[in-house]
Amino acid sequence: MNRRAFLGAAAAALLYVVATPAELAAAEVRLKELIAMTKKAKPQDMASLAWSAAEAKKLGWDSPTSGKDMHWLGKWNVTTHKGEKAQLSVLKGGKIRPDNGAKIPFRRWEVLGKPGSPAMMSLSGSGNLNVYYQYYEWRNGAAVFLSNFANRAQYMTLTMRS
Q1: Which of 9, 71, 77, 158 has the smallest number of Cβ neighbours within 10 A?
Q2: How far, in whole angstroms, is CA 128 from its chain's centroid?
Q3: More confident residue, 138 or 123
Q4: Rg for the chain (alpha carbons), in Å?
Q5: Dihedral angle of Cα 111, 24, 149, 47, to the nearest 10 degrees
Q6: Model confidence at 16: pLDDT above 80
């Protein structure tokens, strides 16, 4: 086995280990704690970004400081704070594609932030729709949690799909 094939197989095995049902179940338990914590964060307060990132770290969730550290590209199952469900694909070049007839308002994404600070995600759609989210991820992208920066009671949970 050459080096490239070995590294590819090792990466695939690592991804499988990260996204096992037990790991996703742990994420689900910690997700409830993360939701409760983010609701305590002050909306539209830049200082609350660092506070909530530190609190999320204690729960096992990461809040990356740059776009290259985000494991965001791929196919996702999405659940909103209202329980609405959809499927989407996040693509390179800042594009979001709805899948399986999903009705989602967002078509573009962008990572915002300054070096060393927790990154924010801007999701935009048609017209003036532009919503800012604080980005959290579980174990290198097995799940992603987006907390609305202006209204912390609103959020989206994304889980990987094949």
Answers
A1: 9
A2: 23
A3: 123
A4: 16
A5: -90
A6: no
Q: How far apart are CA 73 and CA 50, in angstroms?
A: 24
Residue 73 to residue 153: CA distance in whole angstroms: 25
Contact of 152 with 38, CB cutoff 8 Å: yes
CB 45 within 8 A of CB 127: no
Binning pLDDT at 50, 70 and 90, where does residue 5 land?
very low
Residue 96 has, within 13 A of its CA and on its CB side, a CA count of 23
Contact 82, 154 (CB under 8 A): no
Q: Tokens 């949970």 sit at which residue?
A: 157
Annotate 129-139 with b (16+ C-beta within 10 A) or e (fewer). Answer: eebbbbbbbbb
**Is the distance from CB of 70 to CB of 111 less than 8 angstroms?**
yes
State mean pLDDT over 79-88.
94
Q: Pick the more confident residue, 132 or 141.
A: 132
Return the amino acid letter for 44: Q
pTM over 0.85: no
**φ, ψ (nearest 5 deg) of residue 33:** -70, -40
